[in-house]
Amino acid sequence: MNLWQEYKRPVSVTEAVQALASAPGPAIPIAGGTDLMLDLKQGRHTPVHTLVDLTSVREMTALELRGDSLFIGGAVPVNRIALDPLTVTHAQALVEACNLIAGPQVRNTATLGGNVAHALPAADGTIALTALNAEAEVAGVSGTHRMPFTSLFLGPGKSAIDKTKEIIVGFYLPISNLQSPKTASCFKRIMRPQGVALPILNCSVWLERDGDVVKDIRIAVGPGGSIPFRATEAENILRGNPLTEETFTLIQDALLAQAKFRDSARRASGDYRRHIVSGLFKDVLSTAWLRAG
Questions:
Q1: Are residues 130 and 191 in the same domain?
Q2: Among the three residues 174, 207, 222, which one is the final residue of a domain in this structure?
């Protein structure tokens, strides 16, 4: 049984969108395909007539500086992001997240766009991009536009992107502040002890430091809700204040009050996640704080 009927390989974003729109049957984009191919083979995906391969679209395989942003194409393999000097310099949290996605063979094929398009609120790349304040570039038949990163998500496994008509071209990460030696980011997660595992809990922090004061901060925790979660209440408490044990207690309480940790039969209960999040958060925050110093 054929898993698809036609296979297109466009060389531009415009061609890719047109290939999706003009397909005579259900069409879907593919780059790494590490999730999609399994879903098709195991019958977890609706039948597909046309696959549109994005790996020859130069715009989507670019990783480069553009003005005051770092652009990462949606079809860039995860392992390239983990090793590229630009991401190592400007987006350390994303490098750390990419190094923890699956195993080496998968990382050589899987893409950041695919990681995001799967719309899981605890995906490692997703949580790092949330803390780094990324913007997504999305292309459809009406043109290309940017949108706030978290606007891509409607719920667990539910993307705001119509994969039959739209593609995630890439992501813009602001770097004007990241170039300062007093800014830094960090990503860590808790998982089961086997070699390749999905996260029980993950956390990413970006902060700007002014002496002993947290000048600005972004905190992302997964899964802290049905979409990628920003701990905005904790951020507001810490922003403009020194990082002390007293302030940490306040922001920890604020995070626990705002987050909605879900039960997962395969990973952990919501209560267990609430129990362990403080230690993970303190570790990530302390590491980012020291890096910024």
A1: no
A2: 174
Cα–Cα dist 148/27, whole Å = 26
Q: Are 190 and 280 in contact (CB under 8 A)?
A: yes
- The domain in which residue 129 lies consists of 58-174
For the chain, 293 residues long, give each residue's pLDDT as a single digit of tens: 688 999 999 999 999 999 999 999 999 999 999 988 988 899 888 889 999 999 999 999 999 999 999 999 999 999 999 999 999 999 999 999 999 998 899 999 999 999 999 899 999 999 999 999 999 999 999 999 999 999 999 999 999 999 889 999 999 999 865 555 699 999 999 988 765 567 899 999 999 999 999 999 999 999 999 999 999 999 999 999 999 999 999 999 999 999 999 998 878 999 999 999 999 999 999 999 999 98
**Could you tell me if residue 156 is inside a domain?**
yes
Bridge pairing between strands 27-30 and 50-53: parallel
Kindly state whether residues 48 and 65 are assigned to the same domain: no
Return phi, psi of residue 168, to 5°: -85, 110
How many CB atoms lie under 10 A from the CB of residue 24? 9
β partners of residue 168:
138
Residue 78 lies in a domain: yes
